[in-house]
Amino acid sequence: MRRETRAGARERVDEERDVMTELRPIGQGDWDRFAERYSVPENVRQYMARLFSTLQVRFALAAPDRFGVGETGRVLASLGEDPAGAAEFLRKQYKIGFLDLVDEAQTSWELAGYATFLDVWPVWENEEYRSRFTPEELRDIDWKYFHASFDPRERQAREQGVAPTEDEVYTLQETLDWIDRNGRPAYLSFCDCRSLAGDCGKPRETCISYRDGINTYAHRGWSRRLSVEQTKEAVRKFDRAGLMHTLNGTTICNCCGDCCYLSRGREQLGSGPNWPLAHHVVEYDRERCVGCGLCVRRCWRDVFERTPDRKVSVDATRCVGCGLCANTCPAGALTMAEASYPGLRPEEPDPSRVHSH
């Protein structure tokens, strides 16, 4: 009979310990304390047992406010885990967004909190995330996360007249020109909005960022580095897929009209082209129109409508200046004219346009 090596025995014990840790029950009091410490909103606490592992919960309850490798090892030991695995534990939990780094020297960590965790783990381990919930539950988590992040911004916008974010809508050519002027490599990541909502069928790997410091997707090890030319080609690809380009100085979001929090926020706020701020409006040459209907299919703002004579009618007041229609009009009947908007001007939202589940 073949004898088990010491290394093999240790691996087996470690595996058994991991299983035991996962199966060890957590009392309701512990869940309540974890929810408070990890800032889990009350309206999603029914999902905690499927969002977080037992080890994550017990670690969060036992850890100090800030901790290094040594403190992490001591906490793990107190939980019956191998303290030698502290560095790997920190690496993994940081990567999936359960922990944040505190300092650039990367010697101290802290609990990231629910908002950060939901902005990271479901994005990068999307299949695992979606396998744990029903479609209805996924929509519920997404909807509550959207409102938790946007509703305070909406209140500020309505009370103070300030834009919820600094995002602006750029046409394809404007975006390409901006990338050239920036002249730096970028990082391509999966879209957090589309990863949570996931209903539109558009590509997910579409968010472009120029940030790579601690606690970014790039630093956590999830992003792909792109050259200037690769970044421009990616944006062209996203444009062909029907995604609108919004920029805020450090990020190029390539947004759909169904999942994107910027798009959904615009509909809820009723801000139209005033936020995210547009710089163009569509112009239509009826004589050149060949009636192909491509603009009707490309526009998710319902600017275009088919007419009986195989042309289209145009409601330019709904245009947000993205240029998706003009970029692909085969007859050149659509162009984007420069426009000047006053900025944020909140209106009463149209309930028929607000997304719901």
TrEMBL record:
<dbReference type="InterPro" id="IPR017896">
    <property type="entry name" value="4Fe4S_Fe-S-bd"/>
</dbReference>
<keyword id="KW-0004">4Fe-4S</keyword>
<dbReference type="GO" id="GO:0051539">
    <property type="term" value="F:4 iron, 4 sulfur cluster binding"/>
</dbReference>
<feature type="domain" description="4Fe-4S ferredoxin-type">
    <location>
        <begin position="310"/>
        <end position="339"/>
    </location>
</feature>
<keyword id="KW-0411">Iron-sulfur</keyword>
<protein>
    <submittedName>
        <fullName>4Fe-4S dicluster domain-containing protein</fullName>
    </submittedName>
</protein>
<dbReference type="Pfam" id="PF14697">
    <property type="entry name" value="Fer4_21"/>
</dbReference>
<keyword id="KW-0677">Repeat</keyword>
<dbReference type="InterPro" id="IPR050572">
    <property type="entry name" value="Fe-S_Ferredoxin"/>
</dbReference>
<keyword id="KW-0408">Iron</keyword>
<keyword id="KW-0249">Electron transport</keyword>
<keyword id="KW-0479">Metal-binding</keyword>
<keyword id="KW-0813">Transport</keyword>
<feature type="domain" description="4Fe-4S ferredoxin-type">
    <location>
        <begin position="280"/>
        <end position="309"/>
    </location>
</feature>
<dbReference type="GO" id="GO:0046872">
    <property type="term" value="F:metal ion binding"/>
</dbReference>
<dbReference type="InterPro" id="IPR017900">
    <property type="entry name" value="4Fe4S_Fe_S_CS"/>
</dbReference>
